[in-house]
Amino acid sequence: MLEDFRLDHAGVREILQGPQIRQVIDGLAEEIAANVRALKPEAPVEVRGYTTDRGAATVTVADVRAMAWQARDGILTRAAAHAGLEVKAWQR
């Protein structure tokens, strides 16, 4: 029954920090970067993978116009959506 269920926190942490998740995250970040490059070929796009309590990555458009492109055209949001991801507002 459900009352017998115990979450293995150490096991979940191991999976989230493991190489398989790292590979998925890095692949998605590269796909998002490629989608941004297709939208804005002139923009330099940087991908950086890292690990906190789980595998993570950032995709950065290294151009002073990038904030305006995101505000006006949603280039990162659209690039993520094309990769099958849903972008939500960050909350603290």
Structural overview:
The protein is built from 4 helices and 2 strands, in the order H-H-E-E-H-H. By secondary structure, the chain is of the alpha+beta class. It is elongated.
Supply database-style keywords.
92 residues; 4 helices; alpha+beta; 49% helix; two-stranded antiparallel ribbon; single chain
Write the layout of secondary structure elements.
Blueprint: H1 9-16, H2 19-39, E1 45-51, E2 55-61, H3 66-73, H4 75-82
Antiparallel strand pairs: 1-2
Tell me, briefly, the overall form.
elongated
Using only C-alpha atoms, the radius of gyration works out to 17 Å
Strand order of the largest sheet: 1-2
Return the structural class: alpha+beta
Mean pLDDT: 92
Question: What is the terminal separation in angstroms?
Answer: 35 Å
**In DSSP terms, counting alpha (H) and pi (I) runs of 4 or more, how many helices?**
4
Number of strands: 2
**Uncertain residue segments:** none
Output the helix-strand order. HHEEHH
Helix content: 40-55%
Strand composition percent: 15-25%
User: Sheet bearing the most strands, described?
Assistant: 2 strands, antiparallel
Concise summary:
It contains four helices and two strands; from the N terminus they run ααββαα. By secondary structure, it is of the alpha+beta class.
